[in-house]
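Mods, move this if it's the wrong board.
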Amino acid sequence: MSAKPNDPPLFYAVHVFCCTNERPAGHPRGCCSAKGSVKLRNYMKAKVKALGLGGVRVNASGCLDRCELGPTMLIYPEGIWYGYETPEDIDEIIQSHLLDGGRVKRLMLMPDQRPETEDGSSA
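Not the wrong board. Structure tokens:
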């Protein structure tokens, strides 16, 4: 889907959706919240604000349905998915993706990506 000629201008140029979904303890799929996503999203939101990145909105999201790979984020309009675990991962995404227009290949999630099992194979 693309913009139409008479559409209003964008309010935000970039939306960052960070899954903060919480499931009950012991749920077989797990959840991003139990893996620190709320704290990391708050870190990213504060960092984007401190850098003065106008046009970027960091949103809390419900389940993005990739729980086993969490915490996960989705950046629009590009539709790029990232898995992240640390504030340093967030810093790299901000610098490489939001500021420089590039990608953080090591953190990108592919459409067919599945979590690794304990023996290193894909689930």
